[in-house]
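Work Package 3 (structural annotation) set out to generate three-dimensional models for the target panel prioritized at the project kickoff. During this period the team completed the workflow that converts sequence records into discrete structure tokens, so that structures can be stored uniformly alongside our sequence database. As a representative example, we reproduce one entry of 454 residues exactly as it appears in the project archive.
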Amino acid sequence: MPSACCPGPVTRREFLEVGALALGGLSLMDVVAGQAAAGQPNRDTAVILLYLHGGPSQLETYDLKPDAPVEYRSVFEPIATNVPGLEICELFPLQARVADRFSLVRSLNHDIGIHSDGGIIVLTGKRPSVLDPNSQSKSEHPDLGSIASRLRGIDERGIPPYVAIPRQMYMTRPTYLGVQHAAYEVGDPSVEKFTPPGLTFSVGKDFQLLDDRRSLLAAFDRFRRDADATGQLAANDSFREQAFRLLANPRTAAAFDLTREPDTLRDRYGRNLWGQGCLLARRLAEAGAAVISLYIDTPKSGQEFTNWDDHIQNAGRPGHFGDFMRVRLPYLDQALSTLIDDVFAKSLDKRIMIVVVGEFGRTPRLSKNSFGVGRDHWPQAYTALVSGGGLRMGQIVGATNSKAEYPTERPYTPQDLLATIYRHLGIDTTREFTDHSGRPIPILGSGSPIRELV
């Protein structure tokens, strides 16, 4: 029998303890209220973004130049894939087997060689008004995940529309869309007994609260009345109904439960942040999330990994950047190849689009000194990998010159890649939002879907 609802006013703290879903530090009611104005039906599509922060070298990943002069050429050898004429790095043998299920855009380019500002243009399509050489700038406009959150909203399946694994990207923020459209940070899904923040109530000792529908609804009502009386919350019945539906939906917590996957599949992905992060991303995309970002600097293996910023003494460590990449690239190869294979095996390749990209590439000419060997920032040419999304797979789009310095065929911009992503999500890039100064700002001011892919 449902327990009687305790009399008296409900404080905001008590309400959060009864039934809150932590989305970047926001309560579920905050999120539902913010989503109510979305006004667009959900489309059953999703994007998984593997954001390679630091800027991976095009020459050591997907655009090797084995015939270039020694001071330019890749430190690794190219290997053939199952697509004739498409070669990739020798440390990507698993991706080589699924190359017919992805395409490479080798001609991406822009002109911002700063980590944060380069990331801002790649993720928002907007050029920062003031460049920050210290790479501490924050976006003035929302990124693709916040845009999708605003327009797609939460549906009846109860999955947050924008999820960040393990944390959100530092250089972007929802800005004038409102903090309720920030990414829901889930932490590291490879840890033992992983449960994302705010969902413990639905799978642990407080599960009975979800079954006590009468008392929970009464708690919502009392909190709303108290908050309205003090001006804290402009709630209404639709918000209450939506919030309760999400709290009571067991699919919300189930989507985050990796133990529902076979151990063999979890092993294939890799029992680390990269592998389990990609597996969780697939589950969330399948369950109804719109955008899932993976922003991963290092696995749990140790300090030799570093991020993708492969200049000399990256992270203060001397040595050859190729040694760091030999540790890093197999993690990406295992997790990404399994994700691609898994999405296609489950016939999700039209619903789910996978994008792998960083903020820029690396200098074609190697840098050398007594501390080591590396490559510096180079936005003039870099590569993105795209898989699924109902797009044309198994092809190379664009080309760079013999030293991977700049595009020579079909040059594309970050805005073009974003336009391709938004097309998949069913988002009109000409739609405008009003910024804090009252100006109308289009989702994208330039860019068109990449023709060869669509």
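The first strand starts at residue 46 and ends at 51.
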